[in-house]
């Protein structure tokens, strides 16, 4: 609702005798909209279509606008002065009348509650008019390109209707008379039965406004302390706050409930801004003008986009070679097209160039992210940049178990290919392996075919393979960090158990599951078969669940990492399934993808910054 309409609705609740004494907000707004057109001297924001060529005369354009502003701004200020004087004169008269009524109430000649109601009504009158002045000045500054709101409101704070010193004294006396003299907003016993004084106190507490205060400047802690000192002095209730920093520059925003005696808060904030070379933003508005009333359970935090029917997601964007402006531009354009709002951005890396950013997103509830998966993959592929979307819930940073595939995930090779290399059948085995990874063959069938080719291979070959294994970049770093953070780690492989156990030992994992190769009676050679259940896709997902149950860990706290079709069920079972440098089919179906060299990048998807990961290395 526009403030002008809101003000008219509120005015209707006041006695008819009060109507003519309100600020004529409509008249002021109409003057600005009709007279101060194309007058802004802030040329960069005057009009999106206002552009200049070299042969154009900026001097003439600016001179013309300055001439108009020189005439129109003083005229507007004189009109505003007349309106403010009208409001202040009426306030002084009403305050005087209420003072008489208060004396009568203290002598028991008047009902104290009725007099207190008059005080609250007059305070309401003050807030509505003060807000109207602030908003009219804000519009003026936009249209004129000047910044007169702050000095004008500081000047106005000298008026009695803003300071309201006598009215506050009257109010204090009435409150004491009614027996509700506890500090407004203080805690009290909510278990006892309500008393009449509770009703009076409730009337006072509900007579509040909401204000958005923001102070930006180069003195971070001083700015925060200065704002909080002002809020403390005026006994404001802090509803929410937000802080952002860009090197030395800090912006501190606070959402507060102002009790009616706090109108002159602006003057103190303005002085604080001047003291610390800050830029002050102060917007007073009634709670009913907000997207939702802050007193309800459906409130919005300052860090949230104020839209209903939204779901919170976190998007992690990652590129080891650096996030390009081209990618970020296309990514933000995609978000805009989907009506997805960015609520927070957090840099996770600490490299010389920007590599990883975490976005907190507000997503329309009817936008099925599964439907747009192909679009995200296309954007990612075009820029070789990964985008991982996850629901922003309590479990996102409360994972406790990570399960890895082994071949081409924790290690760079396929172990069966390494074994085959020693017997001269590498090409036949590799061809079957590739068909299986692409999902063209049933895993059990392909495993049996490959293992059969190994018949007669000396068992001692396995020891040589262990020595040739090359761990994927970042594998040790990742596992060390996760173990330091208290995670349980497992490798579940469609490869072979002796090698999986070796990987488990090297990386400090807790569990290792893989296929067991059958050997001859004397234990010297492989017979070309496996023993026990085949660790195929279904078995991998089953083992993931078994480990989680054994450790008392919810599936919502499980991460799975793999690269092949054999990993799809495991990736789907976990709450966060990551396709690591995976085959196309796997990338299309997995919830998250990483197409970077280092496994350590998984920590970013789990919400850890590079600094936090480094601290975990020290603990390990």
Shape: elongated
Overall SS class: alpha/beta
Largest beta sheet: strand ordering: 12-11-10-9-13-14-15
- What is the share of helical residues? 40-55%
Rounded Rg: 35 Å
Largest sheet: 7 strands, mixed
Instruction: Please count the beta strands (DSSP E, at least 2 residues each).
Output: 15
Low-confidence stretches: 181-207, 287-298
Percent in strands: 15-25%
Overall pLDDT confidence:
86
Describe the structure.
The structure is a single chain. The protein is an alpha/beta fold and 620 residues long. The protein has 24 helices and 15 strands. It has a seven-stranded mixed beta sheet, sandwiched between helices. The chain has a four-stranded antiparallel beta sheet with strand order 2-3-1-4. A four-stranded antiparallel beta sheet has the order 6-7-5-8, with helices on one face. Residues 181-207 and 287-298 have low confidence and may be disordered.
List keywords for this structure.
620 residues; alpha/beta; seven-stranded mixed β-sheet; 47% helix; 18% strand
How are the elements arranged and paired?
Blueprint lengths: L2 H9 L13 H11 L7 H4 L11 H49 L5 H33 L4 H8 L3 H4 L1 H14 L17 H11 L1 E10 L2 H14 L3 E10 L2 E11 L5 H11 L3 E7 L24 E9 L6 H13 L3 E7 L8 E9 L8 H11 L2 E6 L9 E4 L10 H7 L4 H12 L5 H11 L7 H8 L6 H10 L3 E9 H11 L3 E9 L6 E6 L5 H15 L6 E5 L5 H6 L2 E5 L3 H6 L2 E3 L7 H4 L4 H10 L1
Helix pairs in contact: 2-4, 2-5, 4-5, 4-8, 5-8, 6-11, 10-11, 12-13, 14-15, 15-16, 18-24
